[in-house]
Amino acid sequence: MNQHILFVIVNLFPLGAAQQLKVLAAGLVARGCKVDVAVLGQRSFEPTDWNDLDIAVTFLNGDDKTPLHTMRDGFHVVKELRQLIDSTEPTIVHTWCGAAELLTLAAVQKIPFTKPLKRFRLIGTELYRQPEKRFLRQFLENRMSRRVERMIVPHKTVKQHLVENGYREPRISIVPNSVVSSVPVNRFESKRELLGRIGVPDDSKIAGTVARLHHRTRLKDLIWATDLLTCIREDFHFVIIGTGPQLRQLKRFTALTESKSHIHFLGHPESPETLVAGLDFYWHSHLNDPLSGNLLSAMACGIPAISVLGDGTAPIIRHQATGFAVNFGARDEFARWTKYLIEQTDSAEQLASQGRDHALAQFDKSAMIDGYVRIYDLTD
């Protein structure tokens, strides 16, 4: 395979959409492709680990101290992205989740009295079930998306969501997510670092999740579950890794509970993979992220998982075999199964082992990379 691929993504937070992209990009470089990454949003860190993989990363947001959230930023990155495509001349431009698709579609439109871009294939990936968009934005995306040759999703639920919002079903392909293999293996050291970060005793039991602070991720369910569990387990703590518009509301809600000192908001910390590896339990509370990469990676690291059960999590969580499945919104079930895992250590170790084996066997990264390569090899 000999392609020059430019990926377009909003940010490179290691536990977000960039998690799967990094696995794919590294695999493509190993197969002889030239890979560039255009980042539309905030430059929050130096992409040294990406550069070490021979992946060129370009940040396009002129105000690199703030996330991509204003109209001004959008207009700026569209111009910069068009210039980058013109100068690098990729054979494939591949948008990766969320606003990256709309801004890329705007950047590649034919503009009167300007130099046309050289021909390239336009492909998109959407890993999440996005919230409903305003009519005008959805209308514009549907019209401009005719330029997209192929949309790739990890699960049929995302495909169904796109079709319901006007995307052409024959142009949508499914390539499942994979386990990310870069998670630290020394969980003892990771646990020590996590304990130090949140300042709790060494014998504490810690559950955690990675999620955007938004009502759709149902973090209030997990805060409520923590409140239930800390009534009988003073040694239990809950960690939330992520940012989003509901930070203030969630902190206010937490302050009204008896467990407020047991709940820790970490935002986007440095080395978040290390902190996740230090968890005793991983909680997953929503169905907007089918075949969640963070859930898979936690299980592959040997962390027992408790997750809501639905179409998007059923291939990962087999109740009492690879993890514990709970009903959607069932706060008490998170608390009940976590208490069981704390007290039944042998069962917890067996569940973690079975979950790890299942994740590694069924969601190998080579299968994911092969799926994308097959799509790249198709002629338009």
Rounded mean pLDDT score: 90
N-to-C SSE series? EHEHEHEHEHEHEHEHEHEHEHEEHHH
The number of strands is 13
Query: What percent strand?
Result: 15-25%
Strand order of the largest sheet: 3-2-1-4-5-6-7
The termini sit apart by 16 Å
Oligomeric category: single chain
Percentage of residues assigned to helices: 40-55%
Structural class: alpha/beta
Backbone shape: globular
Poorly predicted residue ranges: none
Q: What radius of gyration results from the CA coordinates?
A: 21 Å
In short:
With 380 residues, the protein is of the alpha/beta class.
Task: Give the helix/strand layout.
Layout: E1 4-9, H1 18-30, E2 34-39, H2 48-52, E3 56-59, H3 71-88, E4 92-96, H4 99-107, E5 121-125, H5 135-144, E6 150-153, H6 156-164, E7 172-174, H7 187-198, E8 205-210, H8 219-230, E9 236-241, H9 247-255, E10 263-267, H10 272-277, E11 281-284, H11 293-300, E12 305-308, E13 324-326, H12 331-343, H13 345-362, H14 365-377
Parallel strand pairs: 1-2, 1-4, 2-3, 4-5, 5-6, 6-7, 8-9, 8-11, 9-10, 11-12, 12-13
Helix pairs in contact: 1-14, 3-4, 8-12, 11-13
